[in-house]
Amino acid sequence: MVLSRVIIVILGGVLVTLLIFLTTQPSNSANNVVFSDEALLGKHIWLNHQCQSCHAIYGLGGHMGPDLTNVMDRRGNNYIRWIITTGKNKMPTFLFNPKEINGLLAYFDALQRSGVYPLPGLWHNAYGQHPNNKSKTLNEQ
Amino acid sequence: MNSNIDETRRAWAIAPGLLLVSALFGWLAAIKLSLPSPWLEAVSFSILRPFHTFLFICALLFVQYKWADSLLEFKSNSLSLWLQRFFLLFMASAIFSLLTGTGSGREYFSWQPWSTALLLLSQGLYLLNLIKHQQELQKRSPEGFWLIGFGGFFVFWGLLEAELRHLPAVNSNFILDLSLQWHAIDGFWAGINASLYGYGIFLLNSKPKPLRRLTLFIIATFSLLFTFGHHQYASPQPEYLKNLALVASLLALVSLFRHIRAYTRKNWRGLEQPYLAPLLQSVEWWTLVAAISGILFAIPHFNILVHGTYFVLIHAMGSVIGINLMLVLANCYSVCSTHLNVNVRRVRDGVRLVNIALFGLWFALGCAGTIKGLERTSDNYIPFHEIGQYCLIALPIMGTVLLAGIGLLCGEALRLAMTRSSAVAKTYQRGCLLSKDFD
Question: What is the reported pTM?
Answer without folding.
Answer: 0.90
